[in-house]
Specification:
It contains no helices and 11 strands. By secondary structure, the chain is mainly beta. The protein has strands at residues 3-7, 10-13, 18-25, 33-39, 46-51, 58-60, 68-73, 78-83, 92-99, 109-112, 116-121. A hairpin with a 6-residue loop joins strand 5 (46-51) and strand 6. Strands 2, 4, 5, 6, 9, 10 and 11 form a 7-stranded mixed beta sheet that branches. A 4-stranded antiparallel beta sheet has the order 1-3-8-7, with no helix packed on it.
Length: 122
């Protein structure tokens, strides 16, 4: 069964940090670009960061540049999103997705996880 599972979300105060994980099962991530997306209540799902299958192409949304770091460990079939200096506007459900190309657009991804909640209090 092909599956992506996010973990690491939680409640944190502004200025704090969280590290999200996206673990794949049923397929190998070696051939896939991975994107992280988030969705706040009443808002569209937006791209946060993405990384190519080899890790040589990385993109960030302007709103998270300098605060978030995406990385991957293909041996563990897992992708990470380190989130530092979190702000209340970072609150939302965070999803990872796997596709052929690293994109900040939600179209073009083949597999999606169920999401993990991140809440940043002020």
């Amino acid at each position: 069964q092909v599956q992506l599972v996010e973990s690491g979300g939680g409640l944190v105060q502004a200025g704090g940090s969280l590290r999200l994980s996206c673990a794949a099962s049923g397929f190998t991530l070696d051939y896939y670009g991975i994107g992280w997306f988030r969705q706040a209540p009443g808002k569209e799902r937006e791209g946060v960061s993405c990384i190519s299958n080899r890790g040589d192409t990385i993109k960030y949304a302007d709103s998270v540049k300098g605060r978030f770091t995406i990385s991957r460990d293909n041996a563990r079939n897992t992708v990470f999103l380190q989130m530092d200096n979190l702000k209340p506007e970072d609150t939302g459900v965070y999803y990872c997705a796997a596709g052929l190309l690293p994109l900040l657009l939600k179209d073009g991804y083949d597999y999606w996880g169920q999401g993990t909640q991140v809440t940043v209090s002020s």
